[in-house]
């Protein structure tokens, strides 16, 4: 216990003496949460809309005004030019073309069909445009006295867990999981790599301590620091972005501790293959990027090929991001928690076995 306490004080004092690293690990996660939550959004906005309509086409004017007033669309430049050419040249994201003679006359004849040209270079934008325009056209038609669409089936639609469809409610919990993982990687990997680069790792190895003492002394202090980072960015998410916290606080803390099993193991394993801090940073970027892309934190894993979905099943960050999001927004039961926890622990034990075996105990 005395040896562990000595390691603990050494790591904390070393962190406090390095102001650059201290700011990077304690302040930057909060900054990243605020910036990324505002920058990364699944909503498509400011879509440039071009309309090709004849003079006096009241219905097309209503659709255009509703579209601009919705906040999703903005006026495309050079509206007086060919809308097809506007979409082709990239000046417009979508163009609406009225039928011959105008949409108003076509509706009178029962032939209300308009052509919508969508630039699908960005799939997210293209899908959003179609959904947005459907709502805009229906509202404009009802205002003009046309009941569209006519259907014998009525939908009682209820959106659960995120009724406003606020992207930040999706992004903030995901970023909490991602930033915790990056904090563990950076703190633990850089700490061990720094010992190697300065040569002090040889002093630790030659001292009367086992490799388990060294690993525990390197891991536990930074788990505590990562826990404080997690709490700080959670408070920012709740206070700044108004994210609700529906689930259990105990489950949230236990989920963090469970994730630290594979998270710390990955950091120690990565440190075994690095000799200095530059190599460690390069490895962190590679590992963090791959884990993030295959975690479902930003991109749904259901959209991935089957092989990548299998890889995501053994990705600890995948389980942790789903767990954090569910605890904050849904309040899941303990069986859900156990399912993801067992997966993380199983993967963590396997990585720990490899990491400990690779950890050098000789000079």
Residue runs with pLDDT of under 50 for 5 or more positions: 151-157
Coarse morphology: elongated
- Total strand segments: 4
- Spatial ordering of strands, largest sheet: 2-1-3-4
Structural class: mainly alpha
Q: Biggest sheet: strands, sense, closure?
A: 4 strands, mixed
Average of pLDDT: 79
Quote the beta fraction: under 5%
Number of structurally distinct domains: 2
For the record, give the distance between the C-alpha atoms at the N and C termini, rounded to a whole number. Answer: 25 Å
Rg on CA atoms, Å: 27 Å
Helix fraction bin: 55-70%
Describe it for me?
It is a single chain. This protein has 363 residues and is mainly α. It folds into two domains: 2-40 and 163-358, no CATH class; 47-143, 3-Layer(aba) Sandwich (D-Maltodextrin-Binding Protein, domain 2), CATH 3.40.190. The chain is built from 15 helices and four strands. Helix 3 (28-39) runs antiparallel to helix 8, helix 11 runs antiparallel to helix 14 and helix 14 runs antiparallel to helix 15 (334-358). It is elongated. The two termini are 25 Å apart.
Summarize the structure.
Helix content is 66%, strand content 5%. It has 363 residues and is mainly alpha-helical.
Topology summary:
Elements lengths: L1 H15 L2 H8 L1 H12 L7 E6 L5 H12 L3 E3 L7 H7 L4 E4 L5 H6 L6 E4 L4 H21 L23 H32 L1 H7 L4 H30 L8 H24 L4 H17 L12 H8 L2 H14 L4 H25 L5
Parallel strand pairs: 1-2, 1-3
Antiparallel strand pairs: 3-4
Helix pairs in contact: 1-10, 3-8, 3-10, 4-7, 8-10, 8-11, 8-12, 8-14, 10-11, 11-14, 11-15, 14-15
